[in-house]
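Practice set, problem 2.
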Amino acid sequence: MEAKRAPNDGRVAVVTGGAKGIGWATVEALVANGARPVLLDRDEAALAVASQRLTERGVDHHAATLDVTDEAAVERAFAVVVARYGRLDILVNNAGIALRRPTLELSLADWEKVIDVNLNGVFLCARAAGRTMVAAGRGAIVNVASMMGLSGGGLYPNLSYQSSKGGVVNLTRALAVEWAGQGVRVNAVAPTWVRTDLTQGLFKDPALMARVMAVTPLQRVAEPEDVAHAIVFLASSKAAMITGHTLPVDGGFLAQ
């Protein structure tokens, strides 16, 4: 079921990786709360489908392909958003990848690919958005980290992903402190296993899923909407006194 659309409140919200999974659920939740979404995604086909769905519902939006590791392309994409709308209120850094390898089999090239998307991409997009937000004296950034950025205890080797998401957690803290005086809040969410394209291979393994349930007190995996609602809260005025925080959306995994 598609989210209901609240009256447009003027806020402009950029979501990277916005065409699918957590990104698309976040777009839906932002629209339901009155924001104008900007979808940035490297998957051109998925982006076209997402844009068409919004168009059919009469949602004012902007959609563009973007590789978040391309510095020049990131700068251009954010310049287009500001030129079109004259403002930028929310950034959700959601784009990410995972290449699950035992460490002794992890090539430098694969390590760098994950770090480039998951950490460098967050930096590049936050810096581009920050220029507008700091100048305006307002803004909210929410980074999608992972509970594995707060724990080394995964059920399978995933060093590059865990390291990149740990970097996102501390990048979030550092930016929050640096930009707090300019009215820009920076937070993160740390999801558990979420039912998306990124994890579909894992969910096909019954033995692994039994182990996932064993370490998840709430006894279920997350849906994209579970994470999206937390993101929208952190981006909203209801979280006006929250910055530098990483909110686990983990079914109790980290509480054990």
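Problem 2, part (b): a different protein.
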Amino acid sequence: MKVRAELLLNPRFVIVDDVVTLGATLLAAASLVKATYAEAGVAVFALVRTMGLVPEVGSIASPCVGRIELTVAGKTWREP
């Protein structure tokens, strides 16, 4: 992934992904945007949130708001 710097005033970004499992892709994309635009507002959205690496999806749950963080061990942590 790469972010190209442009002249933007008060930039705000929404990063969209189809599925979030561990959140590593969304965290990496948001980190790249923040590295280029430190003062920017960044939000992320995923259409589907999995409950881990499971072979079948039993149902679609209601929408939620959560957090994705990088742990000291260098892995992603997602809540919920």
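Answer key, part (b): The radius of gyration is 14 Å. The longest strand covers residues 12-20.
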